[in-house]
From TrEMBL:
This is PAC2 family protein. Pfam families: PAC2 (PF09754). It comes from the Bacteria. It comes from Nocardioides cavernaquae.
């Protein structure tokens, strides 16, 4: 079991989780949790024992020097943090970790038991995958949910994916088996720029969380980092004619497939987020 530090009773907490590895193209999903821990000033209250779940030859410990000058080893693990976002009216449990190498079912069971102990009633998992999507267009995010009420409210669908899965899929299945309402969002990352980071995909996932939570999330430097990332990929494409041709082909496919009404809905959602941020800053 995960040992949880003493923490006050949380207010209607929901869980947001992401894991490095197969589920985390360009580290886009785990970067969301890193960002939320920072802007919401979250406190780490527990961590899973890595000995039972990680192969340390695959996920090696890191040796470094702490603030007192002593050399210490940091072991790969999955941490639980809690935050009280301003203006949200509820607390958030943040899970940030690494896809385990073994005992996935036990891993999920221990995390969900800790969430249950803290009162978590809704789980949101985040992922990112490599896809045939152009970097010059808004990066698509697909969402699914396990409960009919969530499907209707968030305008999502039941997942129809069939094939290999990672810890995010197993975690979502564990929620279903325990009758825990769960939502999953996946951002598409252009496969021709797969190396991390991809701040544009991180921003896309944060936008979905804003819609879910019905509140604005401080974005900090992410918008400028996303613009710089896009400019960098533009320069790469200019230097490689094959990549430039491929990007243009992806743009044509995307522009043809996008329905005007879908684009209008996306613009409306983004405008609503802008207004919320502006009002919050007043």
């Amino acid at each position: 079991m995960i040992e949880i530090d003493d923490v006050r009773d949380l207010v209607d907490p929901l869980v947001i989780a992401a894991f490095e590895g197969w589920n985390d193209a360009a580290e886009s999903a785990s970067s969301v949790i890193d960002h939320l821990i920072d802007v919401w000033d979250a406190d780490v209250i527990g961590a899973i024992d890595p000995e039972d779940f990680y192969d340390f030859q695959m996920n090696r410990p890191i040796v470094g020097v702490d603030e007192t000058g002593h050399r210490r080893i940091t072991w790969p693990t999955t941490q639980i943090a809690v935050a009280s976002p301003p203006g949200l009216g509820r607390d958030v449990i943040l899970i940030r970790g690494i896809e385990p190498n073994m005992r996935w079912r036990q891993f999920c069971a221990e995390l969900l038991a800790a969430c249950d102990e803290l009162g978590g009633a809704l789980v949101v998992t985040l992922g990112a995958l490599l896809a045939d999507t152009p970097h010059t267009r808004p990066l698509p995010v697909t969402g699914s949910a396990t409960e009919p009420e969530l499907l209707d409210r968030l305008k999502l669908e039941h997942s129809t994916y069939e094939g290999p899965t990672g810890i995010v899929g197993v975690f979502q299945d564990a929620c279903t088996r325990l009758d825990i309402p769960a939502v999953s969002y996946w951002a598409a990352v252009p496969h021709y720029v797969a190396q991390p980071p991809c701040p544009k995909a991180t921003l896309a996932l944060l936008g979905q969380l804003e819609d879910l939570l019905e509140c604005s999330i401080p974005l900090g430097d992410l918008p400028e980092e996303a613009r710089a990332w896009e400019r960098g990929v533009d320069e790469l494409a200019e230097e490689e004619e094959d990549i430039a041709d491929y990007v243009r082909a992806l743009e044509e496919t995307r522009d043809t497939a996008d329905l005007p009404e879908a684009s209008g809905e996306a613009i409306a959602r983004e405008f609503e987020r802008y207004l919320k941020r502006r009002n919050q800053g007043d």
